[in-house]
Protein 1
Amino acid sequence: MFSNTERLEYSTGRMEEERIIKLTNKGHAIVVGDIHGNFENLKIIERLFHETNYILLFLGDYIDRGPKQLEVLKSIIEMKTEYSDQVFLLKGNHESNILKPCPHDFDFLVSEKEKSLYELFFEKLPVVAFNNNLVFLHGGIPEIRGKYKIGMLKEKRLEMEIVWNDFNPSLREMFAPNYERDPLGRIKYFSHVAVQKFLKDLGKLGIVRGHQYSLGVANKCIKHVCTLFTAGGKGGYEWYEGIEPCIAIVNLSRGNVCIERLPNERY
């Protein structure tokens, strides 16, 4: 039997994925939004994964706030280790070391050695996945000058906005500073205008993301942007209990996204 530290060292050593990963254009995928330590929802997702044999893609935010963060991490690491070609883990803002979210209670749950190992594991997580039809990420579109190219999304300088930016469908300009999240304005709101340019430049149909339950976008597809939040219902952070936990079933060949509610005890 491996200890948690040994398992983490082994898994981190095997992580060889690039900062952006190309998914298949065939079959289906289960796409999961923020988990935030809700192990009850994760167990439902695991059962669905084994029943369907679909690809399983997590959009990040595994830690902080919820009561079973370590159980969630142990489970997703085990799934990634056993099904490395079927399970994909993206980085969320809570796994990024560029800007600490609040509350950030994960560090109090682990030893200094475990913390260092988890930070190394998080740093190796990709920030974007894509196929011929869709782009998958945690937060949002980064603001750049010129034309978007898929390869540029691997650049470290864009990570903060990719994992932190929020979608504001009523915003008229392409981007605006989000001072609520960052007083320095480094985090942005992006609009449907920015989405149109991003998708046109990359030749894609839509974006599937997590990160956000504000501005009425959670668990909806609005203007080619589908936002998932999976941490709601029972078993998680008390503030999220009233939010329906949802995932998406994605037809990878057609780019169709169907948002489905998890059968959480709360609903």
Protein 2
Amino acid sequence: MVRSLLKDVFVGESLLTRAAVRLIARPGPIAMLLLVRDEADIIESNINFHRHFGIERFVVTDNGSTDGTRDILAKFERQLPNFIVIDNPEAAFMQSELVNRMIRVAKQKFRPRWIISADADEFWYPVSGHYHTELDGRKNILKCSWHNFLPRSGVEWQKFDDIGDTPWYHGGMSKLFCLAPGLHGMYTGNHSSRSIPRIIASSNNIRVYHYPLRSYEQFERKIVRGYRALVNSPNLSTDVAWHWREAHQAWEEGRLRTVYEELGSRPGAEKDPTMADLLESVALRNAEPAEFEMER
């Protein structure tokens, strides 16, 4: 009973936790964390996109890339003062451990007010043009909905405009924009955080545009390497990354291309040209950061 009471007071939405959040959950510097492996086709666009919208602090862990991703990161590391790259070539599946290390590094090096733990295939788009629009002291966690692009054979991923659900990725899933003070870690997938307190609200401003399937070649590489990481992690629950296991079986049976094509032809897709237009813009390609009042 005492433990439950303490949890309600210090973790839940009590008067005490609301008062604490009201004091600190205000606009301020944002740090983005990225865990990447073989993302050379998208990582530069990803970083430039978020720089364009005012994020200036990055901690990136390269998990043994062999496709040129590490060279791209090295370029940013040379050019940007607040850009840290951590090398971790370990082949095992260690997402939570690596993300939580980046949280510690970001807090130590940058002292951010907010943290986004993202993937290389996610573009966190603030509809208002500012990430701080909803940071009003009433919550310390924002749930930001996934908008998943369906692949189209023969079309560059930058031109995808079909949003839809697959058995593996669906719009009901969300990622978290977290207040750095009180953030103690992320769970696998970055869909849930270990935050104290936990006052959560859904964002109407930030959309997480997701490009998990960009070409068949990228899809195949992701499945094969991802499955190897699972094999190298024998203590991992079979519920973790179950879709990699399922897709790898299809690859072994010679059915993976068919799976890819079926994922791209699912019914119910909605047209959304927002990202295609943004990625095509000259301003974004040149990554000229906009002027933001609160995030510098």
Protein 3
Amino acid sequence: MRLVDWADEEGARFGRSLFGSSAAGGSMADQDELRKLVDRDGVSLPEAVGAFGVDLDRALEASSQLESAAAYLELHIEQGPVLESLDLPLGAVLGTFGVERHRITWTGQAAHAGSTPMEQRRDALAGAAKLALAIRDIARETGDGAVCTSGGVVCKPGIVTSVVETAEQLLDQRHLDAAKLASMLARAQKLSREFAAEERIDVAWERLWSIQPILFDETLIGLADDAIREVAGASHRLPSGPLHDAAEVARAGVPTVMLFVQSLRGLSHTKLEDTKPEHIEVSVAALDRLASKTIDWVAAG
């Protein structure tokens, strides 16, 4: 049994998530882009990891660490409200959502805010605004946990006296089903073209990042359910919207499962993030049971 402390899951310093696990999993194929990344102090990513003896050019050699791995188990806070809404401390994770992340650039024409009649405006922000509302319907109609987020819009010239000429909009779409995720993206792109025509503006899409949904091992999910019921009385299966290192390990072909422990108020990435001590205790007990069951499963294998 090995305990793993992955490097830079969040990507907070350089904006690139799952650094260590993608190297170990063998999916890291963006070394050229990684070499260009710098933090707010001007330190490059190769310099930062090099200070700890990591050679970016040899990072994929870490995949040898998973060659003999028979299973991977991870315990994590839920970072969402589902378990709390069900009054349950623990849940078994089905897998991680696939993600489609794009930058959408709307281009209109800057014009004086006072002298340009409403019907003659080519307002780039109007297209972004329409799409920001439309993606709510896309998520709701797709269902099964679908989420769409317009996380930011940057407008230029960005002054109160001018119609917006360009609006750069960020769009994040997630689903556990690859076909439904693709459909969500196609619908958003189709609507964007319709909105551009309505507003007499142009629209262009640029993919920032994407990852396919990753499903966890069915046998291990069942063992996780059993372990949770033994220590907490009831379990619930749920997908993970956030990404985790477990996704990269599963992607590498290692049987994987996660346990979620309840997050108070469903909040994460905020100073209000918290989990009850008694829930942490029962989650560790569940992980211990799951580890024992997994060892027996591998030995019988």
Protein 4
Amino acid sequence: MGISSAAEWFLPVELMAIRIESGRSQRWIANAIGKHTNTVGYWERRERLPDAANVVAICRKLGVDAERTFFLEHVAEQLNTSGIVSDLHQRNIFIVERAEQYYGVLIKVLTRYIPGLLQIEDYHMGLLPDPMGDPTPKIAHWKRKERRIAAWEARTNARSTFIIDASAIADLDRLPSRSRDKQIQRLKEIDARPNCEVQVMQGPPLTPHGFELFLPGGAPNAGPSFVYVESLDQSRHIEDAESLALYHRVVDDLTPRVTPIGVFLE
């Protein structure tokens, strides 16, 4: 069984990110967990891979929150697999968030909702599901999404394509008119950005779930190509070439069915 390339890329990148966020040095980390400084350097340069116990030890020494620690441990435990699979309680979008910051090509095909990077707060709070009926987690999720949006918008060299189902545009009528207009303006503004396209697909979907395709696209710190797919109770980071080719084919098949957002709204 091979090593998950996505996990192999994500773990070192994320460990270095949390160390830098904490303001600590590699030497400090090494002393804190009883390792040689060179070992921490090997991990961050992807020359060696830390096991789950060392990942958790680093997170605890740096005071990383429980959600992020849990997911990093989960990824470390799946290093020796062909792809990262997460159940309802394990799944998270930390890898997607990091890929949005590092990869050269992003293609997001969403069948039910406006993509997170394109949402405004009113859309997030008003139209996204809230199964627990408690707004507190939803507010926290929006704050996280704001940081994610800011990190992506700070980039100027990534090519981003967003393909949205027409039904998601129609759902905007459920918002107050001012919020609807603001969300539509947001879509138009993103479409006008360099290297960005917002397109609308019509007709029956070609896949039962939306998906997000990440390609290195020549970006120096990107990892391997992968697809992120989220169903009702599971998420998968798909890496094998045969499966990736299927998703590429879906994107190609969608080409004659999509309309630029500006043309669609006219």
